Amino acid sequence: MVRRRVVTAVVAATALLAVGCSSGGGGTPSGGESSSAGSAAPSASGRTAEETPPAKGSVRVVRTVADHLKTPWGLAALPGSGLLVSSRDDGTITRVDDRTGRRTLLGTVPGVAADGEGGLLGIALSPDHASDHLVYAYLTTDSDNRIVRMLYDPRKPAGEQLGAPDTVFKGIPKGFIHNGGRIAFGPDGMLYAGTGESGDRGLAQDRNSLGGKILRMTPEGEPAPGNPFGNSVVYSYGHRNVQGLAWDGKQRLYASEFGQDTWDELNAIKPGGNYGWPDTEGRSSDPGYQNPIAQWHTDVASPSGIAYAEGSIWMAGLRGERLWRIPLKGTETSAPPQAFLTGAYGRLRTVVAAGGDKLWLTTSNTDGRGKPSPTDDRILEVVVS
């Protein structure tokens, strides 16, 4: 059952100011492999969030898994092997063999209206994907942003492997900008969605709007049990544009957020608080707003996807063209954020934990704002510590 009525939530975040100060150009390496490390201090896999990760980490791009992708946005790892990637502008979902790079078109998602920052955005697999074979997608239509789910049947011919979409949730405000779009299933089995305020700032503070929020719902689109405002999907509010969601080893939620002119943010999310937009951007002295645990000037970040691995949050930067490492201790940073791959691959959109010290990382240079190389866009395999 689709829910259109929403109430607010408030978010608690532990604050620690950390300003990134790396600069970078827009060059792309000639080959598919590159490495970038910052005083490498290798760490053991399986570290818990309460243990202090090393102040310095390392990043090594092992290989290019796939290239010549068009506007890749969402990325999901299939059980066993294989990656699903969505194309924002084409409205397609493609399977990529993560060992050979071979691609198989699953199909085109009907109803996608790709305009501006909208289109086919985040994708996520059902927690029971091994048995129910469901793929969830966040997409922009002519009237709204919504979440649908489709049956994925690899036994069918290429291009016909996606079933008809079933609308799980609709009515999220759409705009030429700030459509949010990241979806993910949490450790609790609930579906989370990051939304934007669609360019209408007031929606972020409006408890009856779905814009500028993090939403939490059941896989069927109902308000999740334990939500802070009863029969509402709203989990947190006061957001400008959330495109990154990830949980640490203690099942604590983090979200990345685009600022306007001054500060981009990484927030530690708890149910029931207010992140402050549009009344504040970045840290605030107002106790009614929850402060970010890290913040960056917008020219070095513009964050989209995030993932948790090796005791740190890893954050992909679009305008900043770099991968940020934010080491954690509890819900605070344990050292200043550290930048890698600055300018080496252009705009970075999505980062997904692949187990242990490995990440999948996508570029976003064909989205109309980048300078694509002849082989863009790409999925990279990255080892981190």
Question: Can you give a write-up of this model?
Answer:
InterPro entries: 6-blade_b-propeller_TolB-like, Glc/Sorbosone_DH, Quinoprot_gluc/sorb_DH_b-prop. Helices cover 1% and strands 37% of the residues. β4 and β5 (92-96) form a beta hairpin. It has 1 helix and 26 strands. It has one helix spanning 129-132, and strands at 34-37, 58-66, 72-77, 83-87, 92-96, 103-108, 120-125, 134-140, 145-151, 166-172, 183-185, 191-194, 213-217, 234-237, 242-247, 253-257, 263-269, 294-297, 303-309, 312-317, 323-329, 332-333, 338-340, 348-353, 358-363, 379-384. With 385 residues, the chain is an all-beta fold. The strands form 6 sheets. It has a 5-stranded antiparallel β-sheet with strand order 1-2-26-25-24, with no helix packed on it. It has a single domain (34-384), classed as Neuraminidase (6 Propeller), CATH 2.120.10. The longest helix is centred in the middle third of the chain and has 4 residues, at 129-132.
